[in-house]
UniProtKB/TrEMBL annotation:
This is Uncharacterized protein.
């Protein structure tokens, strides 16, 4: 999966693998479904993140974190590939899916782009 991101930037395939992992934990399935639809139909990554924001805000109080993520994706080029890589690492390593993903995404953002250092 990581090789796919680096070599081909195959985001649809990556998200499909994410869906398989999330389905096992029975959490955020609807969010990922919308992500798949958004990527397949429009390649509209900003819209995809907006759907993530809506879905996560309903389940957890992480709206502010997701807003910062959205801001970073809109502003930075080449940002999404690093985020997805860290999301995959979080899914593999963490048992608590959502907390692990957010943690690894924030680590990836800070290390690769540095734009959240002041906010955190």
């Amino acid at each position: 999966m990581l090789l796919g991101i680096v070599r081909k930037k195959d985001l649809e395939g990556v998200i499909k693998w994410m869906l398989l992992g999330i389905a096992r934990k029975k959490d955020l399935e609807g969010v990922i479904k919308w992500m798949l639809l958004g990527i397949a139909r429009k390649k509209d990554l900003e819209g995809v993140i907006k759907w993530m924001l809506l879905g996560i805000a309903r389940k957890k109080d992480l709206e502010g974190v997701i807003k910062w993520m959205l801001l970073g994706i809109v502003i930075k080029e080449g940002f999404l590939e690093g985020v997805i890589k860290w999301m995959l690492l979080g899914i593999v390593r963490q048992e608590g899916f959502l907390e692990g993903v957010i943690k690894w995404m924030l680590l990836g953002i800070v290390r690769k782009e540095g734009f959240l250092e002041g906010a955190i």
